[in-house]
Amino acid sequence: MIGNINREKLGxxxxxxxxxxxxxxxxQIPMMEFSEDEPFTSRTMPYALALLGIAFSLLxxxxxxxxxxxxxxxxxxxxxxxxxxxxxxxxxxxxxxxFGQLGFLIATVLFLMAGLWxxxxxxxxxxxxxSVPVTAVFWLILTQLxxxxxxxxxxxxxxxx
Amino acid sequence: xxxxILAGAxxxxxxxxILLVFVGCFVGTFIGxxxxxxxISAIALMIPITYGFDPASGMILMAGVYYGxxxxxxxxSILINAPGxxxxxxxxxxxxxxxxxxxxGKALAIAAYSSFSGGTIATVMLLVAAPALxxxxxxxxxxxxxxxxxxxxxxxxxxxxxxxxxxxxMMTVLGLMLSTVGTDQSAxxxxxxxxxxxxxxxxxxxxxxMASFALSEALMSVLKSGKEPAVKxxxxxxxxxxxxxxxxxxIAPVVGRSSILGFLVGVLPGAGATIASFLAYxxxxxxxxxxxxxxxxxxxxxxxxAPETANNAACSGSFVPLLTxxxxxxxxxxxxxxxxxxxxxxxxxxxxxxQPVVFWSVIISMxxxxxxxxxxxxxxxxxxxxxxxxxxxxxxxxxxxxxLIGVYLVSFNTFDLIMMVFVAVVAVILRLLNYPMAPMLxxxxxxGMIEDNLRRALAISDGSISFLWQRPITFSILLLTVILMAxxxxxxxxxRFKST
Lengths: 161, 500
What we know:
The structure holds 2 protein chains of 2 kinds. Chain A is mainly alpha-helical.
């Protein structure tokens, strides 16, 4: 069912929904009492943008598309490597979450190792050589050469205290 | 002006800045060669590094990366028929057939000579056009700027591909919407922050550029790996890099014409290198004598020289609106504008007067970049081409890491890492739905300027919108905008009418 949706129209529909939500959120922007009669307030530009967004997406939804068959979502999304892409997204999210806790060195080594593994690298020495030295050299450049402070991570900080 | 040029030259020719141009060209060439990664990603990846330099050096590095990335795109177009950037697609039409005939070295040399010549002619034109336009634009008022910014955003969409106008406009509006997140500086009111401290300063342009280009392009390359066969290596040796005198004579007029065309197209907001290269290719095919015309698409050196010259000339041309009006003409110059603003420099007519060293050193270093590309990159091409053999499973995690850490090193906020992943996922979905990213980035960067100028224009005219038609400059620019908007809609309606 979803596969038969035209991807162009799906994009327009999503944008319409976003514009409506944006328009609604515009109404929540607080206004100062004395500014309500001013010609330009904090809401003016967002209002105009919400209206433009709604207008463009409605136009896109209403105007018929050429190559209707080719634009079917199922056809245009078939054959993609979803699993490794999804796994990489999860790896990046985990990297973002553990970065503050484990610090740059450990989090980065783990992230690079995971990335290499996800993309099909199975040789242990390649995984090691592409993650540990790269991270160490980068850390040295940042901390020793450029004098940038990189936190060792909340866990290590609490242990050392 | 002469003092400005001399000061700019003195800044551009310091050992550090020459080194930066060289590094920029080299890194840009490498990134530009990687299929899917273009100049925007290359420059975005460089931005965190440039924060350590003064503005002139930072811009010099980015200009080198820009040129290098465009040249790198040509290299992968010629060697493996996989253009790294849209601006070099036309180069593959004749460059790849030349490579298949065992003349890859010659094709790369012609590409380098043409790029160099196009860059040289365009830099001379930039030298003349930029100060002249900067002086004229000193008389511009807020309403004129507002109209110009609207024209710039509309032009990006109007020059988008067939049937892409509405999608490009939607992406522009999305960029403008994202630019309203954060504190409204004029009123001190928070908008769309949903109570999060991390959003009070708005969304960082670097985060948006990295996530929507570098990260999402890397993710797209993994996604597509299931659909497309691995990029194959060139089956042939590079061959000789030598170009004969006869061949040089044949491409000389092509280079001259394409330089002028490329520069003028580059100056137009929104047009840029891609359109310039296709226009130049089409123009030369039409102008060629019938015998030479037959060779187009089969390894014509004219067909390679024209787009190569034009895309480089357009790169220089796109700096004219950036440096003189503060309006970026392309996604790439939009990223540069963001970087300049982060340095505390507002490009525009005052840049020419207030920061002549930055203004002139960027222009001069662009030329130095051209020389480096020719003198150093060309002999290094066989070695740089080897980097193309670096396996994807190593390259992609590195790109993801450098993108993420690049943003972190500016904000030192891990929330930005999570936000980047979220933006990258949305960008991948939009790419899958065939929505262009560059208009979104342009809208995001210009959003604040549009709002400020509109607010000022309304304040000056006591809240009346009469400024839209009372000032001749404003009115003319807006009229041009309406025509630009009407053209694609009219074309689309005409095509539908014909098909029914």
